[in-house]
Amino acid sequence: MCPVSHQLAAAKAMDRVVGAQPITRSAEQIRRLMHYGRVMQSHALHFFHLASPDLLFGFDSEVNLRNIVGVARAHPDIAKKSILLRKFGQEVIRVTSGKRIHGTGAIPGGMNKHVSRADRDLLYRDVDQMIAWAVDAVDIVKQLHAQNAILYDSFGSFRANMLSLVRADGAMDLYDGVLRARDADGQIILDGASDQSYMALIEEEVRPWTYMKFPHLRSLGRDTGWYRVGSLARVQNCDFIPSPLAETQRKEFIAWGKGAPVHATLAYHWARMIEVLHTVEVIKDLLDDPDILQGELMASGKRGEGGVGIIEAPRGTLIHDYRVGADDLVTMCNLIVSTTHNNQAMNEAVRSVAREYLDGRALTEGLLNRIEVAIRAFDPCLSCATHALGQMPLDVVLLGAAGEVIDHVVKSQDGEMLREPANFAEPRA
Q1: What backbone phi and psi angles, to 5 degrees, belong to 322?
Q2: Which residue intervals of 51-100 are DSSP H helices?
Q3: pTM assigned to the model
Q4: Mean per-residue pLDDT for 161-188?
């Protein structure tokens, strides 16, 4: 899902290893163009292809309808715009990194190519249409919220701290910045923290039942220091969005909370579409910048022993941390990816869904889909969140107070629900 984000985070870390700090303006502007194209196409995929079937048709709609094919049949205009929005973002990635997937544009110290004038002109031809469609995308999500405000505000909802990068002046910045965190009431609890000192701020807890770690803010501890990342955090953590149309939409989103932070899990999609609008506005500005067409691409300086690169990937804050020996071999690597940051938050969303929709006696397809809906709001990187044609594997066990298995359902690859006998196996999920 995230080759561009990982490449850029790694490149930012390795810039420090090769002594390229800062990189040249041309290299940074091209990297920014690549990254904002990446966020744009990922958000379009995430919302329209993976999440919108549930929101447009309903959580209990026919399983075979809940997919992008069903959306295309029932809402062809929405499907067309979503496909072309994502295609535009993919083209931005291609012209900056060499290809749409696993490109090689960003390298330690800068970039390996400029944007060609022909490619710039090709993108510029369509960018105003993309902005108009991004405005439409925000309107779609706002209408869905307005039509069923009680559901959208309560589904999978929970209070949480928020973490993201912001620009030095508090603006949203998806490529670079300082770390800021707010508590569940919206009060800033850390600000202006250097990306290089993240280990002093964040601790990763290991638990025996999972390979995933549980990050939390050291100052608050494991019980109250966990947080959410991603679009819902970013839109509320920044002071403003530095593009006019998206900033107008951000203010409307903030007003929805009536003076308090918005903690609704489904509001991730609203925030996500605001970011789509912002990315296209930024892309248009970058296409106007002559430095993407010419200028120095590589910087150099005194070699370092390591470095940290942090970027706001589509699903949230992404950290790459490396130490490199004198022989140029990596001796230590630590990554904290968006899914890991959101680990506890996703668990809380599932817990909230279970409390609202589980009757304590049996597992239903509707409940399983609601679990997927909650996870899907955060992250399509998890297999049960991808919603490919409504056919995703999911393994859910319902335990009684004494630990006995009450129900056990496996949702197979073809979407069939298989109810296992109580003695089938120990709980696996």
Answers
A1: -130, 150
A2: 52-57, 68-74, 76-97
A3: 0.93
A4: 98
